Amino acid sequence: MRILHTSDWHLGRSFHRVGLLDAQAAFLDHLVTTVRERDVEAVLVAGDVYDRAVPPLAAVELFDRALHRLAAAGVPTVMVSGNHDSARRLGVGAGLIDRAGIHLRTDPAGCATPVVLRDAHGDVALYGLPYLEPALVRDEFKVSRVGHEAVVGAAMERVRDDLAGRPAGTRSVVLAHAFVAGGEPSDSERDITVGGVASVPAGVFDGVDYVALGHLHGAQAITARVRYSGSPLAYSFSEADHRKTMWLVDLGPGGEIEAERIDCPVPRRVARIRGRLEELIEDPALERHTESWIEATLTDPVRPTEPMARLCARFPHTISLVFDPERAPEDPGASYAQRLQGRDDQQIAEDFVAHVRGGSGPDERERTVLHAAFDDVRVDDTTREVAR
């Protein structure tokens, strides 16, 4: 059976306030085209369909169109809710659209009720584990301690029990939205440690033929049978080096796995550049990033004037600016009190300015401003003392 594994669409999300709905629509066009051209027999979406619990209307409409197109293609689709989704909202109407071949699995209690598909070699049972927040599902799974490993482990025990009662030779696939140990995270995933230790060991999923994971945004194989598809688009600059793909998985008659990465459309490349402002503006090696979304880290000892405007003149899609000035080495043996000894307020303030600028102190105009500020504070203090 040929399966297309994807996840973390995050419909409605923006990239540093740049809207991505058009790019997300282009990805869904690509997904449907891949389904048709590569003879896909099942589509798996391992959570985080939306970016937030109450998504914007435009994102809901985009999702609705995608469901209609997948149903029209006649290819069964199995989806689970992720930690960004509202399971209750995403699952509305699940029983009705199930008849159209769109199978939403958002209720933890139903994790051991598979979608059963058939191919020339027999049955394939697809089990959906939505995101399991330990504090909310501990009673459902009757676990003695709250934690991700405990609840995912309990859910998988139910899966294995159901699978054991099925005909011999039934192949199995699990969709899960979780942080599996050994996975490489990025900056754009929401922290899930609120429910205890975030990660679960890959061994929790033993006993099934393929595990289609969602949550981490980089495509990666934890083992040959346990894989993250990653997000189809970059949602943070930490993903600048990601190759955004889906997994095209061929599940053989005996549970054998062959997996191929299918590249997703790239609306605009993402790049991080670093250096002094003039160097970045003049460096010919950065020409390849002219049309990229840019995060620029400036290392100038003194903050340049109008850095964003000057960067945008060369890199018009610069959307993030970070300052990390080159710093002069300091005496590591000197204590804070020693460094302040013998300095008045004005000198301490000037030393602070020099510190944050990497050694370049205030100019004459700035010294005047600092001096006036301290004078005003002293006047206020004197006035309050007199009033008492």
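Second entry:
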Amino acid sequence: MPIRSMTAFAQFKGQVRPDASFTLALKSVNHRFLDLHLRMPPQSDALEMKLRRVLKERVARGHVELTLALDGAGAAALAVNRELVGGYVQAFRQAAREFGISGEPDLNAVLRMPGALSSGEAELDAETGARVLAGLAEAIAQLDRMRVEEGHGIERELRERMARLRSATAEVGKLCDAVARAYLEKIQSRMKELIGSHADPDRILQEAALLAERSDIQEEIVRLNTHIQHFLGVLDEGGEAGKKLDFLLQEMNREANTLLSKTSGVSGEGLRITELGLAMKSEIEKSREQVQNVE
């Protein structure tokens, strides 16, 4: 299965009866987990639960918004709540008689009262529910096609960045000997200073060991190459790869930081390694921006 982006949009329009139809829209953006938001007509709780269950089965991760709108004569019809409106009118006229006030109730004000009008749009029968569920399956298929298409573009960019990262890592590896020589010269210079000042032999050994340890960046290079290879393997596997890829990029960033720390203050080839290390961090950071949108 190819990797999929979490950014996509799909819309499905369905017909229930000659005078009634519906529009179902899905919008997906990136999110750490699966985050569902459904905008439904009133009194459609049972259908909403079914829609949620289908989405959880078909979508692994992302902020997903579903909007369902009903259209047609049946959906748009309004009915007057006769009991509520009649009670208000009767109470108004009775109060007018008791207090000797002339006038009739304002129908516009009455109809603005909560519950005075009800919409047929709220009534979802079994046939409408079944058509909407079938429409959701088609909308999810459209959403998946767009997510896969977007995923192809992300994958291409990630592979290109990994190629540049691997090239930079290889160049750093070729400079290891030069860096070691630079550190050796630094050690020798430091030893002369310490010996000239009659320093304690243990202090001299500590300084030499510290500088020798800082000069070894081979371990970071090996780990970077391992992480890059693993990253490409996850891309080959596809599927729900976003969290794995993000973790590997965090590890790569850690190794790049350590490499830069170990080579700071080294002249000559050390400056070139600093340039390469900063370029590596840039590739890693831009890759992380893309990976945040991978399911």
